[in-house]
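Hey, I was hoping to borrow your eyes for a little while. For a while now I've been wondering how a particular protein folds. The fold is given in discrete form, as structure tokens running alongside the sequence. Could you read through the record and tell me how the tokens relate to the sequence? Take your time with it, there's no hurry, and the full record follows here:
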Amino acid sequence: MKEKTGLVLEGGALRGLFSAGVMDVLMENGVEFDGIIGVSAGAAFGCNYKSRQPGRAIRYNMKFAKDWRYCSVRSLIKTGDLFGGEFDYHYLPTYLDIFDTKAFDENPMEFYAVCTDVETGKAVYKKLDKCSYECYEWIRASASMPLASKIVNIGNQKLLDGGISDSIPLKYFQSIGYERNLVVTTQPEGYQKGKNRLLPLIRHSMRKFPHFIEACNNRHLMYNEQLKHLENEERKGKTLVVRPDSKLEIGHISHDPDEMKETYEIGRKTAERRLSEMLDFIAAGQK
């Protein structure tokens, strides 16, 4: 009996270009999933899978790497967002590197973005079927890091970075019926997250939202527990994890197109090396 197959994408800001490289190899080899769930950069880059646009994520990152509107302290001062909210999530995909909304809308593959509700500190899982201004806002919210972004208001919800509440949402995808999952992480095997050194600043800037502060305070515990879950699930045989072999040198922010391309190529090479393994893993769920 066919199993529902999912692609689970961790965030990590520009470390997500590793995941973009992995995804492009999969797309180029015709791999289809029943659904994708992305957190932060995983959502921002993963939406290109549903729109069937390999190469787009690395292309626009390199092209606009030094454009202040895309990412800069100037953008943070002028707009409240280090990564320009209006420019990156609305103007760029509409006019500069056009997002294929028709392909996104027509592709039956399910796509979920994970955000954090700042009032509750809990994860919000939003299924995005059709492109719209609000759809782009959900993706923006998923990738809006505290201290570097304004709170994104959608309806009656106040939202920020999904990675605060659910960094690797494998358990959620399993809970809604995704039995066989390929998980792409952006940290190497053996990595353990430590406590956020910026917590004092977060406590001050988010002082009106105690539940969000608590989620930030416990994030490293949540993340390391998720790594244990990944390990256990991989042993069971229905989860396959693709990760970099060593720490990616790129930081959360980069204005160097060559550094971006290098990170992306590491993802591509990792995927090419493990392509047969990934194809066999996905095919096993189709029987």
The chain is about 45% helix and 15% strand.
